[in-house]
Design a protein that fits this description.
By secondary structure, this protein is an alpha+beta fold. It contains four helices and eight strands, in the order βααβββββββαα. Strands 1, 2, 3, 4, 5, 6, 7 and 8 form an eight-stranded mixed sheet that branches. A hairpin with a 2-residue loop joins β6 and β7.
């Protein structure tokens, strides 16, 4: 099996209160647009259940596709948003071809919203994300020793998660001002 596992931690700051930053990040449809390599495929907004798809081409030849079912947990009083793994239908059967592999994996993240210690008009967001999966190796990699594919896989996964995290920070900050200008939350102090 091709083991994919990694995590990334990041800190980002937004020029607003924790309540407003929390409102901005609590919309899964908005937040999913900030991820690189990850797309929102399906949603059940009533249950806060979502199916994500991670897709990338590695080493210029191998397509990696991971489906992860998640649930959004937004805890306003604690100022924490979690995306936690869950099992949802339909099932994803693992598959592999000469240059691709696909299957179900796990994705999770946690965002903690704090008043910035250096500037009380800003929010500091401590964000962690994790991803893991065990996929059948593409047929083109089956003759490569497992130890070598494991090291390559780990290196690529860590690089991709860092890419996802960096892109998330940039896109979140780039789109915040537009969202805030249109949000009624800054006019009456509430959140939407």
């Amino acid at each position: 099996m091709l083991k994919i596992a990694g995590s990334a931690k990041l800190i980002l700051t937004l020029p607003t209160t924790p309540d407003i930053a929390f409102a901005y990040f609590s919309d899964m449809h908005r937040v999913s647009n900030f991820f690189k390599h990850i797309a929102l495929l399906h949603s059940d907004d009533d249950q806060q259940l979502y199916r994500l798809r991670y897709y990338t081409t590695e080493l210029g030849a191998y397509d990696i596709e991971i489906f992860a079912d998640v649930q959004l947990e937004a805890l306003l009083d604690e100022k924490i948003i979690r995306i936690i793994p869950t099992e949802s239908a339909p099932e994803v059967k693992p598959s592999a071809s000469m240059n691709s592999t696909s299957g179900r994996g796990l994705y999770s993240s946690e965002a903690i919203f704090l008043t910035d210690e250096e500037d009380e008009n800003c929010t500091r967001i401590e964000y962690t994300l994790q991803m893991q999966a065990q996929l059948p190796p593409p047929l083109g990699l089956r003759f490569m020793p497992g130890r070598i594919t494991g090291k390559i896989s780990q290196s690529i996964t860590n690089r991709r998660l860092r890419e996802i995290a960096d892109h998330f920070i940039t896109e979140s900050q780039n789109h915040f001002e537009t969202w805030y200008a249109e949000c009624p939350c800054h006019n009456n102090g509430g959140v939407s």
